[in-house]
Design a protein that fits this description.
Elements lengths: L1 E7 L2 H23 L2 E5 L6 H8 L8 E5 L1 E3 L9 H8 L11 E2 L8 H16 L11 E4 L24 E6 L2 E6 L1 H5 L3 E6 L5 H7 L19 E7 H4 L6
Parallel strand pairs: 1-10, 2-3, 2-6, 3-5, 6-9, 9-10
Antiparallel strand pairs: 4-8, 7-8
Bound molecules: 6-phosphogluconic acid.
6-phosphogluconic acid binds next to loops.
Amino acid sequence: MNKKIEVLSDKPALVNRALELILSKIEPAIQQRGQFTIALSGGSTPKPLYEAIANQKLPWDKIHVFWGDERYVSPEHQDSNQLMARRAWLDKVEISESNIHPMPTDAAQPSQAAVKYEEHLQKFFQVSPGEFPALDVNLLGMGDDAHTASLFPHTEALAVKDRLVTVGNKDGNSRLTFTYPFINAARCVIFLVAGENKKPALAQVFAPQADSSTYPSRLIQPQGELWWLFDQAAGSEVAHQ
Ligand code: 6PG
């Protein structure tokens, strides 16, 4: 694992650095594999990043967008990660719907939707069950409880190691989430963390010893690149460890 930590002065600088990093991965991916694949995180932090990506002139026909987690709500619901990314970015660019791969939230059971998305991923990446395809970029946020994607502390999702997608649970509300082994298969994982409220969790994630089921972001140890991008408010102490 090739881990890099960068503390940026403020959130705009954080967004610009993340944009620069993502853009640097697109051409090489297209040259080597004919496409660029990215999984998006939800929540509020990445919204300005998605707005900035929408302003770029990119080969949209070669870019495929997935989600690393999703609240189990309709795509029109205000909490939908898909809705946020469409409004901030995807509705503003000439990208085909066949290049947009939202997590399905219309199955009667979230577990059925998890299987459906897993099968979609396996077909897209042409892998068999048990194989973990490599996304070019997996974007992640981190909650103030050190969760990432929808891998929440002390939940069953943390124990799922033989699937790409599983069901997460936040306070009794179902989510769909990539499993941590699938996240770790990515060529490049980028955490975007901003805000004073994330500082205590970051301290535990970067502590020499701490329990991964209590601080799930510790589980993210990709074979490829791992970038931790913080603003000063969140990461000023961690960076000097
Ligand atoms: C989600 C996210 C989640 C998010 C963190 C941080 O669906 O909510 O994928 O993992 O990244 O909760 O959220 P903020 O960026 O809003 O702090």
